[in-house]
Task: inverse folding
């Protein structure tokens, strides 16, 4: 019976797509009617400094520790700090778009909700699916980096020293990472318990982390050599293309501010607090990223920077064993903070997508006691733990960046559309444009495509005829009249 009903529903897919793909909700419906589908409300306990700390914590532990060494070695060389500057400018502009949207639509759905109220259900769903993909994959990848830096904190230089090699599995999936899985489980339990307590834990870790960043920056600028920025191969050994490619890769380091927008239902006075949290965290992190990247390249020539646990390994190469251990411990702490924030955001995305009924509705439920999206948190924790157990960082990092850039691009376009189209043009303008677009499309299908196809066909016949003609005899090609019908 269930299968029969589903097959009957499936047969009506074209009609349903026509009705639902461009269906939109108003901000008021998102805030009230749709939110009621979660049952209980999320608890409003967060302040502006909680948001700034969440944004900083969500971004700091990812970028410099996971991508900097890789990009410096393979893409940008010493100019990796320029890649961070380019990515920072782009992220800041994108964050301003998020800020404006967050004031108009202060719900936990972030980019998913912004795009759904602007472009309709399908675009919102498409972006939401990419957001969840980037969160789960990046969290899994960063968890594995946690293992590398934690092993460095205990004096183990081999990044795979705490992993289990399994013979018979494909290369890139054959190093089982149990510490990464353990980290995800612990954080999932914390997030299921309370958002406010998780935020306070993040605040404490972020303060220590910023102090630790200061140590690395000072050490790099005081003990590094300027000649490492120009030898070997100059400041940009891979050229402008390498810098731009590097910017595309390190851009995923900024996805933490996206998490801040998903906390809209759990903060006091969201219209004032959200802009401070989003823009403030992006500005602070951008400065720290650029200084950290420059510090790394001052300490070692780019071609000698290890890709795994780069900062710890560089201090080890300098003979600063104690500093290598400190960096490993500090980086591990930063990664834990970024994981906490990212897992906080991903669960709220899935919760709101569940409210829209685009995934099973039980994922939208908010626990009445803890005020957290319990089911969504647990499901996503299981998914990323499974990936973190097997998959190497380099397999997922480029896919993460593609998803991030796509979503931020869509949000930016949605803001322009809402500001200059939905606030300006009347419905009659859309109807006229729709009629004109239909007319020219029909004309192309009925006339243009056939005319151009026929013309190309005749030209190909002329070329073939000329090739087959005796090459020793000079041919005088007269005008060929091509008839168009």
Result:
């Amino acid at each position: 019976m269930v299968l029969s009903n589903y097959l009957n529903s499936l047969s009506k897919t074209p009609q349903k797509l026509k009705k639902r793909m461009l269906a939109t909700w108003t901000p008021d419906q998102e805030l009230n009617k749709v939110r009621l589908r979660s049952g209980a409300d999320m608890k409003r306990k967060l302040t502006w400094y909680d948001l700034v700390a969440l944004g900083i914590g969500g971004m700091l532990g990812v970028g410099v520790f996971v991508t900097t060494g890789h990009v410096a070695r393979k893409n940008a060389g010493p100019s990796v700090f320029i890649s961070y500057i380019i990515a920072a400018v782009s992220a800041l502009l994108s964050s301003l778009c998020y800020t404006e949207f967050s004031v108009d639509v202060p719900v936990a759905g972030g980019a998913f909700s912004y795009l759904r109220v602007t472009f309709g259900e399908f675009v919102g769903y498409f972006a939401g699916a990419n957001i969840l993909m980037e969160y789960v994959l990046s969290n899994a990848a960063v968890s594995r980096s946690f293992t590398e830096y934690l092993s460095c904190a205990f004096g183990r230089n081999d990044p795979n020293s705490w992993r289990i090699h399994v013979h018979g599995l494909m290369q890139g999936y054959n190093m089982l990472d149990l510490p990464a899985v353990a980290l995800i489980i612990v954080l999932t339990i914390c997030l299921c318990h309370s958002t406010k307590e998780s935020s306070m834990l993040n605040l404490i870790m972020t303060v220590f982390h910023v102090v630790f960043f200061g140590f690395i920056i000072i050490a790099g600028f005081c003990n590094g050599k300027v000649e490492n920025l120009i030898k070997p191969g100059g400041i940009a050994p891979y050229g402008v293309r390498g810098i731009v490619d590097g910017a595309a890769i390190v851009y995923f380091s900024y996805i933490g501010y996206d998490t801040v927008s998903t906390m809209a239902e759990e903060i006091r006075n969201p219209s004032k607090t959200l802009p401070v949290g989003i823009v403030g965290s992006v500005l602070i992190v951008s400065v720290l990223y650029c200084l950290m990247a420059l510090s790394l390249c001052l300490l070692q020539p780019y071609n000698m920077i290890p890709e795994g646990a780069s900062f710890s390994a560089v201090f080890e190469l300098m003979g600063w064993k104690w500093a290598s251990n400190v960096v490993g411990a500090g980086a591990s702490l930063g990664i834990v903070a970024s994981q906490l924030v990212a897992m906080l955001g991903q669960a709220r995305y899935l919760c709101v997508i569940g409210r829209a009924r685009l995934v099973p509705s039980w994922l939208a439920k908010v626990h009445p006691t803890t005020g957290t999206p319990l089911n969504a948190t647990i499901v996503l924790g299981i998914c990323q733990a499974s990936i973190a157990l097997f998959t190497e960082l380099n397999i997922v990092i480029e896919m993460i960046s593609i998803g991030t850039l796509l979503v931020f691009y869509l949000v930016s376009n949605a803001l322009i559309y809402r500001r200059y189209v939905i606030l300006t043009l009347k419905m009659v303008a859309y109807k006229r444009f729709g009629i004109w677009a239909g007319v020219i499309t029909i004309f192309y299908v009925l006339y243009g495509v056939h005319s151009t196809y026929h013309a190309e066909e005749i030209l190909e016949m002329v070329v073939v005829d000329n090739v087959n003609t005796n090459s020793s005899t000079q041919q005088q090609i007269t005008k060929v009249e091509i008839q168009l019908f």
Observations:
- Residues 470-485 have pLDDT under 50 and may be disordered.
- The first helix runs from residue 2 to 10.
- The chain is about 70% helix and 0% strand.
- The beta strands are 164-165, 175-176.
